[in-house]
Structures are given as C-alpha cells and as structure tokens.
Write a structure and sequence with these properties.
Blueprint: E1 4-9, E2 17-22, H1 28-38, H2 42-50, H3 54-66, E3 84-89, E4 96-97
Antiparallel strand pairs: 1-2, 1-3, 3-4
Helix pairs in contact: 1-3, 2-3
C-alpha cells in the first residue's frame, strides 16, 4: 500500500470531502481511534485497509468525519462503496493516482527466449 492515501467521500446528495492520510506517519488521533474501534494494531489495520476491509474502511471514515462531526457515532457510518474513492500518492512522481498504471510506472522488461547471461564466476 502507498505511504500516503487520499480518501474521497461523496455521500449521495452531499458535498465531496477528502482527506490525506500518511500511513507511515499517522496522526495520534487517527491511530488511537482506529485501533480502539477495531481492536487491531495500526500495522494490521493498514494491511486490512489495503485488502479493502469494510470494517477498516468504515473505522477510518468515522475517525476522519468525527473531526468535523464530534457527535458522530461509528454505528452511524454506513457508506456505500460508490460514495468512496481512494487514491495513492505515487512515490516516484508524487501524483495522485488510482493505480500503478499511470505514466511514470515502470514497465516490465520484455520477455525473450534467450537464456540469461551467467554472472562472472558462475559456470
């Protein structure tokens, strides 16, 4: 998973809101609240978030929204998947992208039928 992600939430009939989260250096309130809501340590939480866990996604959205909506309860956060978008900051170029298929992504070396050359000292 990328180091920094952007969560974009656009509820039906509502205004778009987005947040940037640094998964390698999260804020204390984010770490504490998501760990408390899920009972998962931060590393496990980010792994599950990367695997598109609905529980992790819901907890993250709740913590982010709660900053502006202090009375919001976790139970009240029930987003539809089409209300959420995720982007990742490309570590190579810094652009916000949906996947690794953008212009600066490295391309794989073409396959050949020729055997690889032996390194010096190998026979």
């Amino acid at each position: 998973m990328a180091q920094r992600i952007k969560i974009i939430y656009t509820p039906e009939g509502g205004s778009r809101r987005d947040w940037i989260v640094d998964l390698q250096n999260p804020s204390w309130d984010l770490t504490y609240a998501t760990e408390k809501a899920t009972d998962w340590p931060w590393g496990e939480f980010t792994e599950r978030l990367g695997n598109q866990s609905a529980i992790a996604t819901r907890a993250l959205l709740w913590v982010l929204r709660k900053r502006d909506e202090p009375r919001l309860t976790l139970e009240a956060v029930v987003p539809d998947w089409d209300e959420l978008d995720f982007e990742a900051e490309c570590p190579r170029c810094g652009e916000w992208v949906v996947d690794d298929g953008h212009a600066c992504a490295p391309t794989e070396a073409p396959e050949t039928d020729e055997p690889a050359e032996a390194s010096p000292g190998e026979a």
